[in-house]
Design brief:
Blueprint lengths: L1 H8 L8 H8 L1 H10 L7 E5 L9 H8 L4 E6 L9 E4 L4 H9 L4 E6 L4 E8 L6 E2 L3 E5 L6 H5 L4 E4 L6 H18 L4 E8 L5 E7 L9 H8 L4 H13 L2
Antiparallel strand pairs: 1-4, 2-3, 2-4, 5-6, 5-7, 5-9, 7-8, 9-10
């Protein structure tokens, strides 16, 4: 909404235009788009508070849970892991839904993908979109939740992520595919999970990623040989040309 207001007012701003931002913020819509483009995303289903049906059928739940037996419940349009729960099976589902519905009337129930947490910054510092070095996130508490994201020392970051050439190529393909599918511009951060077979599953694209001392984009820029200031200048210059 902010980007749309700025565009209507004719005011410049950094990053993607409002259409891409709205799509990226809507995890249900973006996941459907990823799948349509042949990209991997966790199995799942969307439920709406207004429908009165807050639990999928047993067959749908079984399909979601068959991957790992764990379930992710999250608002469709929220960030920073706010309102997110990870369950063993469907125990505690009602409470998790109520928690998520506090932040959005639409909620995603997704299969939990066991494996590694990876973040990739895509940017347009050159003529075409390209990936910066990938980052592997190792939360000390086991889950990359709000506290793990914003508490200094709560997570370890491996920069660059220890990925083989072939696995990074798959990660790069997924990240660039997601970035282009949403129509992003200037830069964005793509979050993925690598499953036990090193297949990248797209979780979301953040068009307004964090820029704090614990944030991932500044770490990726440094690994790419860019100072934070130089990176911001490049983002601003590219944004003005969108």
């Amino acid at each position: 909404r902010l980007q749309a207001a700025l565009e209507m007012a004719g005011l410049p701003f950094s990053g993607s235009r409002h259409g891409a931002c709205a799509l990226a913020m809507d995890k249900g819509a973006s996941k459907a788009l990823f799948r349509d483009r042949g990209l991997l995303a966790p199995e799942g289903v969307e439920v709406r508070r207004s429908s009165g049906v807050q639990r999928p059928s047993d067959s749908v739940m079984a399909e979601i849970l068959k991957r790992s037996g764990r379930l992710v419940v999250k608002p469709c349009r929220s960030g920073s892991s706010v309102g997110v729960s990870i369950l063993e099976g469907d125990r505690g589902l009602e409470a998790a839904l109520n928690k998520a519905f506090q932040h959005d009337e639409r909620v995603l129930l997704e299969a939990y993908i066991p494996g590694r947490e990876i973040a990739v910054t895509v940017w347009e510092g050159q003529e075409e979109a390209a990936c910066m070095p990938a980052i592997e996130i190792c939360p000390r508490g086991g889950l990359y939740d709000y506290s793990s994201k914003y508490t200094p020392g709560a997570s370890e970051y491996l920069v660059p992520a220890p990925l083989s050439v072939s696995v990074f190529a798959e990660v790069e393909h997924a990240a660039l595919g997601a970035y282009k599918a949403l129509g992003c511009g200037a830069f964005a951060r793509v979050d993925l999970r690598l499953d036990e077979e090193d297949r990248p599953f797209l979780l979301e694209v953040n068009t307004v990623p964090g820029m704090t001392s614990t944030s991932l984009v500044p770490k990726a820029a440094a690994a790419a040989g860019l100072s934070f200031g130089d990176f911001l200048i490049m983002v601003a210059e590219r944004s003005l040309s969108l």
